[in-house]
Predict the structure.
Amino acid sequence: MKIRNPLAPAPHIKRLPDGEIKRRYPVYRWRVMESTFIGYAVFYLVRSNNLSTVAKDVQNALHYTKSDIGSILALSAATYGIGKFLMGSVSDRSNPRKFMALGLLLTAACNFAFGGVASFQVHMLLWALNGFFQGMGWPPCGRSMGHWFSERERGLTFSIWNTAHNVGGGVAGMLAAWSVIQFGGWQYAFYVPGVIAAVGSAYLFFRLCDTPQSLGLPPIEEYKNDCPARVKPGDSPERELSTRELFVDYVLLNKYVWLLAIANFFAYVSRYSMLDWGPTYLREMKNATITGGGLAVLVTEFGGIPSTILLGWLSDRLGGRRGMVATLCMVPILGAFVTMLLTPPGMLWLDVTMLGAVGFFIYPVINLIVILALDLTSKKAIGTVAGFIGLFGYVGKMVEAKGLGWTLDHFTPVYGKRVAWDIVIGGIVACTFLAMALLALTWHLKPCGNEPGSGGGDLLLQGAETAADRIA
């Protein structure tokens, strides 16, 4: 007897009458945008920003070193990258309503457990599991957005949705700080977000839905009269892909996916360096309070909200030139980190301003890297492709988290805090430059449907082929 997969996609049902399609499609599109946005924002409350905000308090209470905190953050980043990659392929063949709700419930449980123990080894294990279960957040969102929003509107709609990172990540730092002050003890930085995440899991289960066809609606390409879903010749655009097709045909044999994955590695160092270590940097070098450290996280995260939407929309208006926009965004990020490197102690306001500038420009880059990857592949492989690129990103985060913690622990006793932090920020500057150089190779890439007069089909390379081929 064959056991039915409880997470299997909802089956397609009979097509509704045209009048009902016209009435229901906008309603369900809103539900998908709303539920994935709120759900993914809640994922960020229980990811790592709560730990980074109270890292110094955990160090003091449990006698952890910076290297210990770095190890916990690095292991979480590694398991998140693995989880996002593996769970991406599972989510491409799952019902996002059940899949995402389960992931959020599991990560809530990890946060509850983390706050309830005081063992370094157990904390390592729990945060590793938390990272893995966090990998169940993005892929079902990507699947849902890819099925409900067309390629021509992807820059804007994905960018609006993508600000869930910033809302959840920004609130996480302040929520963690507030919880500690309000209830006393670092543990509440994990208990309070855990309760919110458990409630969010129930919300997702009852609010999110699967594909349009599972509700009697046509596929998005037909509804929006967009270019057809990108699939292999002679294949069905709505057939669920096999594991081999997902990993081999749509990921491993696509040289542009590899290029974007490597660029994402360095971009994630720029993104997470100050989220993981910014609060500690400000508290050690600028005499900031725990609230000030939480504020730094909020400024960095919220700084990316208007820019992500604006530059995502701009990439649509420029015919889908995601690579060009992302490359240009790296220039001010580079300038912001150089400014921090040269800023003397006692100028907290300038460092916070620079963190805001980093957030303002780095989140559009992270967003556009993923959108460009989705432009390059099938909506049926969104989770797998994004998971592969995310895997490289979180390897970068792992290197950043452990590497910066190790550098601070080993260089501070010899050269002092200022020199150690200068070395750290200098390394971040180098990674930012490498991300910019790699993204420049995607400058001319455009997706089908965004070129005036384009009838759809394959990616329009327009001069980028030779540049990318040199690294393939």
Notes: Confidence is low (pLDDT under 50) at residues 449-472. The chain is about 75% helix and 0% strand. The chain has one domain: 18-208+216-221+245-469.
